[in-house]
Amino acid sequence: MSATRRVRLHEVAHARAGDKGNRSNIVVAPYHPDLFAYLVEQVTADRVHDLFKHKGATACTRYILPNLPAINLVIDDALEGGVNSSLNQDLHGKTLSFLLLGEFFVEVPADLIPNRQG
Amino acid sequence: MSNKTVYIGSGAGFAGDRLDAAVPVVATLQQRDGPRYLIYEVMGERTLAIAQRIKMRNPDEGYSPYLDAYLPKIMADCKAHNIRIVSNLGNANPVGGARRVLEMAAELGIADVRVAVVHGDDLMTFMRAEEIAALPTIEGVEIDGSKIFAANAYIGARSVAAALALDVDVVLVGRTTDAALVLGPLIHEFGWAEGDLDLLAAGTLAGHLLECGGQVTGGYFCDPGFKDVPGMDNLGFPICEIDASGGVVITKADNTGGMVTRATVIEQMLYEVHDPAAYLTPDVTLDMTNVTIADDGPNRIRVMGARGKPPPATLKVTVSADGGWLGEAELIYAGPNALARAELAADIVRTRCQRHGVSDPIRFDITASGSVFDNHDAIRRRGENRPLDGEYRLRTAIRTADKACAQYVNDEVLSLFCSGPAGGGGYRCNITGQVETASVLVPRGPVEARCSVEEIKP
To answer: What is the distance between the alpha carbons of residues B65 and B114, in angstroms, rounded to a whole number?
Structure first.
């Protein structure tokens, strides 16, 4: 087994955020299928909830789809009231996929991290 | 069982999508052998609410303003090659939209264009606002009955199939599920019954993948150096190929940019989905948990394993109410100590608005400091040491029932020009009327009993 490295989620996974009311959903998928088990182990509902608490998030539910593979994160009350009442410039929280990718760290085998040139 | 393949292309995934995206889709569909459809999905909750207001002022309007932008580019080719158009461009007024399509066909010299509409999504035609306000909302919010001006039920794909059975070239609907624009043609072509739950699930999944247009073909996906997408200036919109057994392939228009890969399909499959085991629609409850995807050649992804469960006994209704005003104003600071000057500008406006008695909360963002990730109190910006030098834009925002109050806050930002910190520039402002929406559930019976289809004649 190769050495592990602690990296931003952005290095090893991609994500897209959607909204319904004051609830955000973020799909997270690994660039390499063998990374999926590490994401399942580390991208937990509790840790994701913590990242959105300053926005008022009250709960996070995680759905695991091993066939794709992907994780669907549903975060309640993460959108400062949602499109009806939010004063955020991003009413729908479309940018929040990159809050997760940028500020969530995972520890994964170094040889599974995509090698990006330039 | 029929061995034909049905080809369904997308021309738009939201109101505001690229005006020319459908042209290569139609050019590609012309080369395919089998029933062919072009869908335009252009309706959001607010789009519909705004259209209802327009219709209240003028009963001939309230269909999508994009109807005139999209359809003339492809209508002649669609008619010549029997590519049928299915769309919610009808918005709040499908009949008005249908009349405009007929007019447009006459202007373009396209003969024998036939158009049908679906009626029945508008609850305000048979329920009073107070009755609607009394229903519990899914979001748990209260709605003021006196402010409600629209309530539309998401109706299912069977109404779309019924309209296609009238043998028309164009079907315009108001509020249906987005997926119904795809599932409707499939029910029409394959005769899928209400009990064919796995087939209805496959068609619904195909619809869900297509409903946002280019979001499944590399749009809203590219992250340079990490997820590269070729030719985004000519993004190819999706085409779905579906057979009678519910086999689904997602591909895209020929001779275009963009791409269809496992990754683009995965992102869109779960977009705006909560429980993947229970994606609720009026036609079927879609279970995606066993879905697998496989490469099927360049820019072709096969999607298998959708499972269906019976649909819910209720329909979802979007209720729209007057939401007051949103005022926003911005001023930019740059260069040495720009962040400190922008912060001071915010403090000045905050103090003056408090002194004036503005009681609605005002948000003070400093753009370029991560404000979209922050909260109302800018807790992250205050907790981090950001460079004082740079380019920072002060932005204020307020929601208020009183338009004059929104104007007051904007004027305070404007007055920073001469009375605020040094070097502010680039003032921008707007005040826009707001729509508040909530969702309620209603029994299917009374709504579906009023659903009907009608061909609109010239």
So the answer is: 20
Is A118 a residue whose pLDDT tops 50?
Answer: no
Query: Does A70 touch chain B if contact means CB atoms closer than 8 Å?
Result: yes
CA distance B372 to A86: 11
Give contacts of A63 with chain B, Cβ < 8 Å: 275-277
Spell out the domains of chain B, with CATH numbers in brackets: 5-120+155-312 (no CATH), 322-439 (3.30.70)
> With an 8 Å Cβ cutoff, are B291 and A18 in contact?
no
Pair A14, B226: CB distance under 8 Å:
yes
Nearest CA in chain B to A75: B274
CB of A115 less than 8 A from some CB of B: no
pLDDT at residue B140 in the model: 85
Strands of the sheet with B279-280, listed across from one edge: B279-280, B285-287, B307-309
Min distance A6 CA to chain B CA atoms (Å) = 18
Q: Write down the pLDDT at residue A57.
A: 98
Using DSSP, state whether B131 is helix, strand or coil. helix
Which residues in chain B show pLDDT less than 50?
A: none
Q: Cite the beta strand spans of A58-111 per DSSP E.
A: 59-65, 70-76, 105-109
For residue B164, the distance in angstroms to the closest alpha carbon of chain A comes to: 31
Dihedrals φ, ψ of B445, to 5°? -50, -60
Residues 6+ apart with CB under 8 A from B353: B362, B408, B409, B412
Q: Is B196 helix (H, G, I), strand (E, B) or coil?
A: coil
Chain A residue numbers with beta carbons less than 8 Å from the beta carbon of B227 are: 14
Q: Check B271 against A27: CB less than 8 A apart.
A: yes
B274-279, long-range: CB < 8 A, 24+ apart: B274/A20, B274/A23, B274/A25, B274/A61, B274/A72, B274/A74, B275/A63, B275/A74, B276/A63, B276/A65, B276/A72, B277/A63, B278/B309, B279/B204, B279/B208
Burial of A2 (0-12, 13-18, 19+ CB in 10 A): exposed
Q: Report whether A99 contacts A51 (CB < 8 A).
A: yes
| Max CA separation in chain B (angstroms) | 77
CA atoms within 13 A on the CB side of B389: 2
Beta bridge partners of B150: B320
pTM: 0.96
Q: What is the pLDDT of residues A37-89, one digit of tens each?
A: 999 999 999 999 999 999 999 999 999 999 999 999 999 999 999 888 899 99
Degrees, nearest 5: CA angle B2-B3-B4: 95
Written as six digits, the tokens of B310 are 């019976």
